[in-house]
Amino acid sequence: MKPSVRYGCELWQTLAAVPSAVEEFCIEFRRHAEKHLDRPHRFAAELLVREALNNAVVHGCRSDPGNRFRCALRLGVGRLTIAVIDDGDGFDWRAVLRRRNDNVATAATAATAATTAASGRGLGILFRYATRVRFNEKGNAVTVVKRF
Predict the structure, then answer these.
(1) Residue 97 resides in a domain
(2) Could you tell me the residue range of the domain that residue 131 belongs to?
(3) How does pLDDT run across 118-130, given as a tens digit for each residue?
(4) Is residue 106 part of a domain?
(5) What is the H or E stretch that residue 143 is in?
(6) Minimal CB count within 10 Å: which of 45, 72, 92, 145?
(7) Is residue 56 in some structural domain?
(8) What is the pLDDT of residues 5-57, one digit of tens each?
(9) How far is CA 29 from the centre of its chain?
């Protein structure tokens, strides 16, 4: 992560679609978050970063270690922006939002995912902890904003 005039730090990186790449990125982010965020905000910030990256690995890249995805992260005073894009097929994010708005799946499936399930809570976590979540048309890119 490098210092920036406008932001406390920025990181633009292409990652391999493997959990260890996500973990290394999160460890680096944590080091910088400790310098730029108050302790109560660090948990939400790292959780959002981790979920956005894990969704790209599992869903966008289908956990194929040969695939890569891109992440841009900006951490400034009172704001974190995370942008992640993969080369996958995308998904129907509009349907997720419709279910969420219709209260069929509270917090975009987070509350209805089985507590023992290995997946199914990622989007719910993004919607719960982020200030704003946006997808591109195709559904293979997400921008997450968290205001502190």
Answers:
(1) no
(2) 9-90+121-147
(3) 556 889 999 999 9
(4) no
(5) strand 141-147
(6) 92
(7) yes
(8) 456 889 999 999 999 999 999 999 999 999 999 998 999 999 999 999 999 99
(9) 13
b/e string for 2-20 if b means 16 or more Cβ within 10 A?
A: eeeeebbbbbeeebbbbee
Tell me how many domains the chain contains: 1
Assigned domain for 110 exists: no
Rounded Cα distance between 63 and 65, Å, is 6
Phi, psi (rounded to 5 degrees) for 43:
-60, -50
Distance CA 73, CA 52 (A): 11
Q: Which two tokens stand for residue 63?
A: 């956990």
Dump pLDDT digits (tens) for 52-98: 999 999 999 999 999 999 999 999 889 999 999 999 999 999 998 88
Look at the block and give the residue holding tokens 């704001």.
79
Q: Is the distance from CB of 25 to CB of 32 less than 8 angstroms?
A: no
How far apart, in Å, are the Cα atoms of 144 and each of 20, 62, 76, 128, 140?
22, 21, 14, 11, 13
pTM of the model: 0.84
Torsion, Cα of 66, 58, 118, 21 (10° steps): 60
